[in-house]
């Protein structure tokens, strides 16, 4: 085979970018694949443009590092150029279907992002919201009690 993109050397070892492309396809097309029900089983597809690895590579570029993986920005959307990017695990954890977005002072962020930006303890703030049923404003603005 002639690999013009250089992502499958003579040894047969896939580049990290090519491996990510293959995994994307397996998630949406292989019912025996682990967690298929979260991808192809929910109707998630890959755009026609990305049937060719070269166009996928042209759209997203090389996988930046081993810390990055392919992320769908709208995790209910398909794999397509406007909805995908390379993201770190930390970034992806914030973009899950289960992540709750909180509005405070007219801005929307995840709880982790709010805790980081406001210097709050995550576990304490989570407990205030979930166990004590405090409002977002109260949970974010009440000082730590001794």
Strand content: 5-15%
Distance between the termini: 68 Å
Order of helices and strands: HHEEHEEHHH
Q: Considering DSSP H and I runs of 4 or more, what fraction of the residues is helical?
A: 25-40%
Mean pLDDT: 88
- Strand arrangement in the largest pleated sheet: 1-2
Q: Tally of extended strands?
A: 4
Principal-axes shape call: elongated
Number of domains: 2
List the SSEs and their pairings:
Blueprint: H1 16-29, H2 53-60, E1 68-72, E2 84-88, H3 89-93, E3 101-104, E4 107-110, H4 111-118, H5 122-130, H6 136-141
In words, what does this structure look like?
There is one protein chain. The protein has 146 residues and is an alpha+beta fold. It has 2 domains: 16-93, no CATH class; 101-141, no CATH class. The protein contains 6 helices and 4 strands; from the N terminus they run ααββαββααα. A two-stranded antiparallel ribbon has the order 1-2. Strand 3 and strand 4 form a beta hairpin. The chain is elongated, with a radius of gyration of 20 Å. The model has no long low-confidence stretch (mean pLDDT 88).
In short:
It is built from six helices and four strands. With 146 residues, the chain is of the alpha+beta class. It folds into two domains: 78 residues, no CATH class; 41 residues, no CATH class.
């Amino acid at each position: 085979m002639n690999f013009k993109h250089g992502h499958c050397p003579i040894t047969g070892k896939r580049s990290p970018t090519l491996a990510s492309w293959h995994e994307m396809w397996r998630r949406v097309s292989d019912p025996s694949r682990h967690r298929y029900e979260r991808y192809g089983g929910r109707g998630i597809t890959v755009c026609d443009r990305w049937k060719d690895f070269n166009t996928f590579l042209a759209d997203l570029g090389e996988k930046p590092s081993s810390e990055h993986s392919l992320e769908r920005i709208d995790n209910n959307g398909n794999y397509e150029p406007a909805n995908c990017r390379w993201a770190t695990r930390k970034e992806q954890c914030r973009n899950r279907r289960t992540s709750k977005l909180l509005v405070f002072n007219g801005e929307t962020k995840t709880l982790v992002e709010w805790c980081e930006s406001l210097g709050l303890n995550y576990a304490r703030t989570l407990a205030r919201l979930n166990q004590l049923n405090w409002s977002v404003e109260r949970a974010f603005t009440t000082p730590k009690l001794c």
